[in-house]
Amino acid sequence: MRIRGTVVDRKIGSIIRVQRLNLGMSQADLGKALGLTLQQIQKYESGRNAVASTRVAALCRILKISPNDLFGVSAKANGDAAPLSLWAAKVALKLEEVSPGLRQVFHALLEAVPKRRCKIDSRHAIRLNRRVSET
After folding, report:
1. pLDDT digits (tens, 9 = 90+) for 61-116
2. Boundaries of CATH 1.10.260.40 in the chain?
3. pTM of the predicted model, to two decimals?
């Protein structure tokens, strides 16, 4: 019996999501191209379902990546993997577009943030968002 949602499945799902977003595809578009439902793509991206070996070639062709790109992460899959949220995937793609110097600045900023999670109420988040958008 197969265990659902392994670390490898979640990491592969994150790669699928990032590449799909990079290509500007929706989950429905990817599902249609593969002959799968939107729900199946969601399960792949969340790591709840493993990608069937019979789908790897078509998936890689559609996403314009090699199987090594898709599975190369498995050699590093020795720790816990958090699924990459849609927001995090979009931020990661934007960070790839900026200069290395600016990426270092963002990295330093993130390292300076306390490791514990802070609860921010929605009113505070809205005020912060307005301040950032005004700059």
Report:
1. 999 998 888 886 444 444 444 556 677 777 777 777 778 888 788 777 777 776 66
2. 7-76
3. 0.57
Q: Into which CATH architecture does domain 7-76 fall?
A: Orthogonal Bundle (1.10)
Q: Which of 95, 56, 96 shows the shortest CA–CA distance to 72?
A: 56
Q: Is-contact 117 49, C-beta < 8 A? A: no
Residue type, 106: F
- 63, two tokens: 């996403």
User: Are 85 and 54 contacting, i.e. CB atoms less than 8 angstroms apart?
Assistant: no
Tokens of 62: 């559609």
- Residue ranges of alpha helices (H) inside 35-121 are 38-46, 56-63, 67-71, 86-97, 100-112
